[in-house]
Amino acid sequence: MSPRALRIATRKSELARWQANEVGRALGVTYELVLVETHGDVDLVSSLAEIGGQGVFVKEVQAAVMRNEADIAVHSAKDLPATSLSELVIAGFLPRGDIRDAMVGSRFNDLPRGAKVATGSARRKALLLWYRPDLNVVGLRGNIRTRLAQLGGVDAMVIANAALIRLGLGASATEVFEPEFFCPQVSQGAIAIEARADDANAIEVIGRIDDGPTRAQVTAERSMLEMLGSGCSLPVGAYSTALSNGNALFGMIASSDGKELVSASMSGVDPVGLGTEMGRYLLSAGGERLLAREVGRP
């Protein structure tokens, strides 16, 4: 009897299926996709903050694994909440793709005063307004091709460059922002693979392709986010890079209107400790006050 195909749970979008197939190819096993529709895919009208923020693109995919309808789950790592479920473990990461954001439709410095720029990300909105308070930043939802089709109604839009590249749409980018200028989302460009915590076989198989540098970088960024609070309602960004000994980490937290921004750079050997230290610093340097104001506390 031939072995059963590995069941990979993923969202139905073109990008999600590309990522799941990339994991299947990397594993080198017979596999099949278990396509799951998430709440974030169904509600394309509300903002992500209104329908639950981080986690709206992964909960149903994770549930398929926990119900044993799939063996593993593949996610855009940036969609995962900072606090992991006890029933699941992030067993591996593929080598990280491009972490940068791209602008489509115009170069940033060529935008006229009052230009309409679309994004579905609170972080991108805050950064756009931090640099250009005159911009009219509007919401943007839907898959990548749906977003690009809306370009005629706005002057520009900001999208993850890795998504464009993975779908063969890299030429659509008018400008790609360096992370020092436009801080990426936590874990942006990384593909995470989850398995049930009690499935030793799946964890062992996935571990063979786990990319160490990506794991260290994403762990530092996610540890920062966890320190800020996995339910953080403010725009947050981070990116980590490898050093000869350890990792560097840049982190930021901003007000929703882009009028205030706190950022810092650190380095360390332990990714968890580095992220935790960054989170503590951002809170003490103004982030805690911004959070208190966001939820209406005095």
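the 2nd protein, sequnce then structure:
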Amino acid sequence: MRARLTRLLGARSAPDPAVGPADALERVRPTLADLTALNRRAAALPGWQDRSHARQSGVYHAAMKGRGMEYAESRPYQPGDDVRALDWRLTARSGKPHTKLFREERERPVYVLVDLRRTMAFATHGAFKSVQAARTAALVAWKTVLGGDRIGAVLLGDDGCDELAPARGTVAALRVLKQIVRRAAPGARTTPLAVAAEHLRRLVKPGSIVFVLSDFRDLDADARAAIGHVARHSETLLVQCYDAFEAALPAVREPVALSDCAHEVELTLDDRGLAEAYARRFASRRAALQQFARDQRLRLVSLTTADDPFVMLQRTLG
């Protein structure tokens, strides 16, 4: 029998006897039930509340000292100090009044840019790239609100881009997830990655944490400039989503059929010259992305369609 590789726009992948109808649907389209259920797994992820900022933003806690939750140091009492902050133990030992100073915690918003365009609706194993990106964004959103921080998002679809200002709480996380599900529907045109990157540049404030989830197939000069601007003042992580078939053609002699539900084309993959050129093209795009990450001092990680987004984040954040 011939192998069947499916590139579907909102339809189910080829039947798998080990996967039920609901599971099959969740592998090709983000669903609110699937993304919401990830809140339990997100609680087990390493936190970023104590991680340092990007190179221009210092550490997570603000340098200024004031009335806050974390004790910083004690100093001799000065007129005007709040008597409620007296360090009674040090005062008793030294015989002179001392005041406690507290390090004021600074808020650190988290943003996700999620690519949900039709080029992300592809997989030969596991789940579509768009589903993997959505699940990663859901884990980040739940982890963010569990840590008390605000979650914001830029969601890129075929027909446009949604910008969600950062907000706290379960309602904020659900708002992001619901919009991911809506934006994942296929559209009539394709919006460039640069449009979403520019939305991100305008939305993100210095000292934030940013996750960019895409296959980066159209990472042009405008997109690089906008993401690079964000990276100069915020900790930014690039997550490249791809399928094994995009990296290298399988070594099979039988014809392979690719379908988008409307059309089907049959390919023969036993031409080694074609396979080598195909692999070089992906490797070249990957190398350019790696060079961009090095130039901008970004962290770049991979997420294949067969990976577990939770394991990827656990390894990356840990």
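The chain has eleven helices and twelve strands. The chain has two domains: 3-55+107-317, 65-103.
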